[in-house]
Amino acid sequence: HTTVASTPCCSTHNVCAMMKNTRDALGETSSWHLRLLFIIVAALSVVSVPTVSAEEDISTMVSPLAAPRAILPTAARTKRILFLRHGQAAHNPRAEAARSAGCTHERFLELMRQDDAFDAPLTALGETQATEGADRYRHVLRNVDLVVSSPLSRALRTADLTVSPSSEDGEGSIGHPSRVCVEDFREINGWLVNAKRRDRSDLEGQFHPSWDFSDLTESDETWTETLETEAGAAERGYRGLLWLSKRKEERILVVCHGGILRFLMNQHPNVKLEDERTCSSVDDRGVGGRFGNCELREFVVRWTPSDETSVADSHEVGKKMELGVSKRHVHSMTGEVNNPMHFGHRPLVTMTEVSFQNNL
User: Fold this and answer.
1) 92 or 68: which leads in pLDDT
2) In what order do the strands lie in the sheet with 211-212?
3) For residue 260, which phi and psi values (nearest 5 degrees)?
């Protein structure tokens, strides 16, 4: 019998020495497959598995653009997040008017196609909506310490008009929170060029230097001529929420789009909506109702590890699954159909809408 040392080695020199000793010990008369087996065992003894301490910030391992992975907070965490839809953009006027009049979804998309424009900018009305929103929501936005935006120009422009990045501080100024552009919060992607973003260098040249565009590739590598599925958009939005959970900031403004917000809130199995608005602020709109242009809503968002979710929460996941968001449908967007980290094994995100008056 021949014994192979199992002491881990760290250097290439030690690996080579171990493999040579193994070969010499076996001798020339041993069968080739037995020698190969012992060489493989020797090589495997130097392989180490990286570990992550419980205290390590998981945000260093997760990118909003990366494929979903195991993001399991060790304890529930809560933040206040304000979601703002961009102002009216070039592709919105006719389609939005037809939708309000009760047109079919097919007619709505056709009008969007007819009025399509690359990275559709804000209209004059959209600029006014954002400027007026800055005054209307000033008391709500005063304590925001992070602004997150979709990489589409209409969202970035709305963010800058609503929370100015300029250095001109006046009485009642909102201040100058950090600003980060995140791909996961862009609108449902593909088919229409209003969903296609500009090159990163173009965005850096057009918008305030306080914006962090480091999450973006130089060119838009995600847009295709095929429209992204609603489930795929919902999954991107969920990944964006997981990214937000690891930020140090506690009060965050996210400026994005009506489509992705609707799909995220109403279709993703791991997102649960609650309503704690006061009676005076509750109107006919449900918590998951469609956002109007430049409409702001505030949520208390809670990320709960999968092992802490209740039976009721599990029923909520099952209910959304029955509404048409199948596991296979979402998994097909990531190529991980059988990955158990999806749905029940990922954090449940509870989004509780609250009234602005609570913050005065």
Assistant:
1) 92
2) 211-212, 178-181, 146-149, 251-256, 77-85, 296-304, 348-354, 271-275
3) -65, -35
